[in-house]
Write a structure and sequence with these properties.
3 strands; globular; about 300 residues; 12 helices; mainly alpha
């Protein structure tokens, strides 16, 4: 019996939770639950409005609905498990559950990078080449873009799940995090991971730095195009459609580059947690607010929907 329990423990990890040093964990968990509720509600409403309102059946809003779906899954891949562990008092997570959580977290994160890049391309075509917009951004192309984001994310995540999860663990199996994240798992290994760190660095260049550079290039061309516009109304409309996306890009890529483009040893677990909370909990909450509050079409669709419900 003792041997079975020992073997079972050896295949499990212990999640220390979010900011274990924090004096008021109950208050912290309530704040996280509040943020999760706002994120879940906001993204669900945005997806529903885009699906319901025919005025929002455009490439830009289709891609936005995919972003909301990613955010919804992104925050749901970590928060429910963290909250369940807190209220049940259980901190353990099985090897399989840890690998699954890591896979989905990475899939959604990489897919969001790709999708944000494709959304920048959509804005570039709409503003700089409007006459060809319906041809270049037809429904088939939009579906291919969405598929590319999801499949690309899954393939990249598969590589970065298999390798870290097969590194030998020495000593404590405690993960100083609230979910199974790659840097936290790498800190527990007892072998030289410099080769994998290089693989990770190259991957982050491909899936983080290259998309970020492409987004910057798209918006450089957009701003040059806007400067050549004759009317202030045209300039304001063009900038309004880009400002929300730029805000989301700065929020997401800032924390992702900090965590994944620097060596694991160069930042503390506490810094990892703060960066991850900003990227995986706060940003999914802010995204629907940023897009809805600064977008007249989304606000109009919401008013129409509420009007129908009130009748």
């Amino acid at each position: 019996m003792d041997l079975d329990q020992k073997n079972e423990t050896a295949t499990e990890f212990i999640l220390l939770g979010l900011f274990p040093w924090f004096r008021y964990p109950y208050l912290l968990i309530l704040i996280i639950l509040f943020i999760y509720t706002i994120a879940f509600t906001g993204n669900s409403i945005l997806i529903f409005l885009i699906w319901l309102d025919s005025c929002l059946h455009t490439p830009m809003y289709f891609l936005l609905s995919q972003l909301s779906l990613l955010d919804l899954a992104y925050i749901s891949s970590t928060v429910p498990k963290m909250v369940t562990n807190y209220f049940t008092g259980r901190k353990n997570i099985s090897y399989f559950a840890c690998a699954t959580q890591l896979f989905f977290f990475l899939t959604l994160g990489v897919a969001e990078c790709i999708l944000l890049t494709l959304m920048a391309y959509d804005r570039y075509v709409a503003i700089c080449n409007p006459l060809s917009y319906t041809v270049l951004m037809n429904p088939k192309v939009c579906l291919q873009m969405a598929a590319a984001a999801w499949i690309g994310g899954a393939l990249a995540a598969l590589v970065h799940t298999i390798y870290p999860m097969n590194f030998p663990i020495c000593g404590s199996r405690e993960i100083n995090h609230y979910f199974c994240e790659m840097p936290a798992i790498l800190r527990m290994t007892c072998v030289d991971i410099s080769a994998y760190e290089m693989v990770k660095f190259v991957s982050t260049i491909v899936f983080l730095l290259v998309p970020f550079i492409l987004i910057l290039a798209s918006y450089t061309l957009i701003f040059l195009c806007v400067l050549r516009m004759n009317t202030c109304k045209g300039k304001n409309k063009a900038l309004a459609t880009c400002s929300s996306h730029l805000t989301v890009v700065s929020l997401y890529f800032g924390q992702a580059i900090f965590i994944y483009m620097t060596p694991t040893s160069s930042h503390t677990p506490e810094q990892d947690q703060i960066g991850t909370v900003l990227g995986t909990i706060v940003t999914p909450m802010l995204n629907p607010l940023i897009y809805s509050l600064r977008n007249k079409e989304v606000v109009g669709a919401l008013r129409k929907c509420m009007g129908r419900c009130c009748k």
